[in-house]
Request: fold
Amino acid sequence: MDTSNRWGILYCPKGGIINNPKKRWERIEAALRDCRVDYDFVQCEHTSGVERLVKMMINNGYKTIVIAGGDSALNDAVNCLMQVDQQTRNQITLGVIPNGMMNDFAHYWGFKEGEVEQTVAWLKKRRVRKIDLGCIRYANKKGENCHRYFLNCVNVGLVAAIMNLRRQTRHILGSRTLSFIFSFILMIFQRLDYRMHLKINSDEVKRKVMTVCVGNASGYGQTPNANPYNGLLDVSVVYHPEMTQLFEGFYLFLKGKFLNHKSVHPYRTREVEFFEAERAMVGVDGRLMSGAPVGKFRVTVEPEVLNFLIPS
Reply:
């Protein structure tokens, strides 16, 4: 069967106590039918299966691969695509129907969970943009050189732990807003800072830092001016604020003015070198790294390496 003109759809059901995966898929299926999309789909029951199933789609000749999932599933799909040769990758276009615990990269483009019909209609118009990817390069506990690509951001420090907590609480609470508020409250009682040494352009930061966000896109609100097509990364370095400043920072974050906070120091660069990040957790696209970096690591940008379907 010729699959070159058919979509390969990977459906990743969303957890949480108020979600109904069957009804959600029925709505997506109806939208696909109304837009007369030719497609084949497979359902992924566990996050560990995303890369395997995307690889299967690539090997079966699908040129349009759509992930009905969240940031983690997209991240796995991207890392799978980056394993194939450039000629093959240039023939494949990736799309997203937001359906995860966190959908920040989809939100960047204007895709929304509650607007499945609009999303499918936009994808059908096939407006393709070459986008950048960030890449974290590090050594694992075995001393092996490793790397991981990301669409949205790398978090180092407290926010990496908070994003992981937010993912877990949203799985239970089923609400993005409730999970964020709950995570923020816990952050107040777990305020920590980390001794870090990093280099951004010609500037060196060598002091205690609460969190660092290196964003290829909006970075869950921490790099709001970043965009994944300018060949650059935005970086927010957050020093340890006083308690009153912490609440002010939360208010500015919700208002989309995070960079206006006096404890936030923004940069724009092509590379960030971390020489030291004592005890700091590292998250990639909202998920803690399974094999955390040992010793120094660096974060770079890969310009225009992936085809992505964006709204018209």
